[in-house]
Amino acid sequence: MKIAIPLSDGKLSMHFGHCASFALVETDTKEKRIVKREDLDAPPHEPGLLPRWLAERGAKLIIAGGMGQRAQALFCEHGIEVIIGAPAESPETLVAAWLAGTLKSGQNVCDH
């Protein structure tokens, strides 16, 4: 399973739509381990583009700090599960916590 994480200074970006890059972390969910990480430059910000762009790259889950309701709906339409309110940690820390079932999500830091 591939997990997308928006990055800012090597950690989760609090607003996915304004991040410079994404970590795509491939996991083995049976063995609960990270297989591979690939960092990709984000495409230019354009409404509705990121869900399609990440789906084309195989993402099935996005872990974000904040995300508007419309964006959440678009991710769901592209078959990508959304977790919001995650802390600004490294992709490896976030994915390891998700695999272990201990990822803490909180308040959506996006207000649109």
Can you describe this structure?
- With 112 residues, this protein is α/β, with parallel strands linked by helices.
- The chain has one domain (2-100): Nucleotidyltransferase, domain 5 (2-Layer Sandwich), CATH 3.30.420.
- Helix content is 24%, strand content 30%.
- It contains three helices and six strands.
- Strands 1, 2, 3, 4, 5 and 6 form a six-stranded mixed β-sheet that branches.
- β5, α2 (69-77) and β6 (81-83) form a beta-alpha-beta unit.
- The mean pLDDT is 92.
**How many domains, in number, for the residues?**
1
How many helices? 3
Shape: globular
The SSE order reads EEEEHEHEH
Portion of residues in helices?
Answer: 10-25%
Question: Regions with pLDDT < 50 over 5+ consecutive residues?
Answer: none
How big a fraction of the residues is strand?
25-35%
Distance from N terminus to C terminus (CA atoms, Å) equals: 29 Å
Q: Strand count, sense and closure of the main sheet? A: 6 strands, mixed
- What CATH calls the topology is Nucleotidyltransferase, domain 5
Architecture in CATH?
A: 2-Layer Sandwich
Total DSSP E strands = 6
Mean pLDDT across every amino acid position? 92
The fourth-level CATH homologous superfamily is Dinitrogenase iron-molybdenum cofactor biosynthesis domain
Class based on secondary structure composition and strand pairing: alpha/beta
Top CATH class: Alpha Beta
